[in-house]
Amino acid sequence: MPDSIFMEGSSEENYNLENFLICLSKILNDVYEGRRLLFRITFRNYLENAWEDIGQIENQDNMSGIFSTVYKNTRRNFRKRLHSVGLEDGSSQSKLKLLGFFETYNEYEAKAGVWRLKDALEIAKMVLGSLGKVIPGVEILKELVEAILFGIQKAERGSQ
Fold first, then answer.
1. CA gap 58, 31 in Å, rounded
2. How many helices (H) and strands (E) does the chain have?
3. Which stretches of the chain are assigned E, i.e. beta strand?
4. Distance between CA 87 and CA 79 in Å, rounded?
5. Span 32-76, pLDDT tens digits
6. Burial class (CB in 10 A: 0-12, 13-18, 19+), 105
7. For residues 44, 24, 124 and 101, what is the CA-based torsion angle, rounded to 10 degrees?
8. Are 89 and 17 in contact (CB under 8 A)?
9. pTM above 0.85?
């Protein structure tokens, strides 16, 4: 899927859970690739191990590992359960959560910057929190996002 589909003015019909997972995978790949610039050495080492644990290390260009599992689960029998957490396709709650993510993702994709990265991860954490209530395997992604946000915060503070 081309990046331009998510740029300003794109159709909100593209703002769905499947595209959320694709974009989140891209963000996390950016974090992994930029780990030497973002994190202190100890955190980088643990991030590499965590990355292997979720199965991303083998194929960083496509959704693999846990992303593939979660993606398949959103397409299967979990659609009815998504309604209970406000993530059913087309619902007001879903539109609100995903619009916030994609607006932030578009900013991050177009202009970069650590604060845009943190904003995108914060909103992703909210969506993952809802998804994790109904789809197995999402909690590990949410925890990884939380750990990344913590690691960035620690690195920004330096040696304090």
1. 16
2. 8, 0
3. none
4. 9
5. 888 888 888 888 888 888 877 776 544 444 445 555 666 666 666
6. buried
7. 140
8. yes
9. no
